[in-house]
Amino acid sequence: MQEPTFLILSSLVDRPRHGYALLGEVERLSGGRVQLRVGTLYAALDRLCATRLVEIESEEVVSGRPRRTYRVSAGGVQALREETERMLDLATKAQARLRRRVMAVDAGPVTGVTL
Amino acid sequence: MSVESRYRLLLRAYPSAYRIERAEEMLGVLLATQPRRGARSTAAEAMSLVGHGLVQRLRLVRNAGGVSTSWCLAGLSLVMLLMVLGAQQLVASGLRALGLDGTPEAWGMQVLWVDPRWPVHAAWVLTGLALLVGCRAGLIVALAWGAAGLHLWEVASIASGGTVPWPGDAGPHWVALLGPTEVGWLLLSLAAAALLSGSARTARARARVSTCRWWGVATAGLVGIGLGQLLAVGTYAFVEEAAPAFTVLLLGLPMALAAGVLIHGLVQAPSDRLTLVVLVCLAAVPLAVRGTRPLSMLSVAATLVATGWVLASIRLVNKTPARTVSIGQGPEN
Hints:
Number of helices of chain B: 13
Strand order of the largest sheet of chain A: 1-3-2
Shape of chain A: elongated
Oligomer: heterodimer
Shape of chain B: elongated
Number of helices of chain A: 4
Helix content of chain A: 55-70%
Structural class of chain A: alpha+beta
Distance between the termini of chain B: 42 Å
């Protein structure tokens, strides 16, 4: 799963949102690191709608323009759950190895260096 | 240019069906986020819009199977053309062998002088027949490349002045000269084989057009050319000095047929621009072979037949509902 997709699904899990709100929520979730482009956002939304992970909840007219609200589907929640578990599993393994590396250097050959 | 009109211009990168669904919504979001943005971010946004728009266009083309199948269809119609012309040349040789070509003085020799290009003609006739009787697409592609390869071999033999041996030279034969006509024919042969672009595409392209159409085109071409050939022979038999121009006029029968098909196709066809470009380029090859030789006229006629047929088949292709984009439903392939 690509990062924009993951972030969009995460943003939709707590409540349905429309396009502009999604952009803001993704930025907030990533701590300001990821600022999605509108083109990328809609490309991801198209992909998610096509694979039925996201649905259009409603459509209203705001300032003369249509505004669609998107919500995550049950399939989307499941996909996000699986992806989160996968990432968590990988991150845990990587963290364990990093800890072992730190300990190994600590107990390494006599160099007189302490960390 | 106002910000909104600039974004509208950028959104034109997306295909029109997509724009109808999405453009206003995207524009709303773009304008809402505009105040927060710096110049660099705006440029990145513009590039993202154009990039994603082009990707959407490519996806449309891929789903419709449009461009690639059209090229393949053009190739298949070229194969038909070469089959018809190859058959014509073989029939002409046959008439000569039977002494029926109507010019006893010229061909009074007992020996049959063969057109050294007969293997190439036979190969294209075989390929065309394979298409008509519904052989596997892989076989058709293999035969087409075989015929094009044979043609290349023949031209190499002529170009090398006979150093490269050529099977068609067995027995008494004409001397073929390497002129623009020969090169033009070689280019058509190679183009026909190349346009088929593989057996998968050929199978798909052939599936889009019913076999009846292929048979119809083949029949029209063969009948037209056969009639022209026989009438030319008849002219020589009954007219003392057969004016070459008159003979050429008779061979224009297939040209008349082709013009009718072309006009019909043009009136009906929606714009499938790339196919048109291909056909115009291919048509220019024999047209560039300017001259009063009947063969050149024949090549023009036959190219028109192929053009008209493919244009007519475009109408059939676009009848299948493959070009609509529905957001929210995935591409089903």
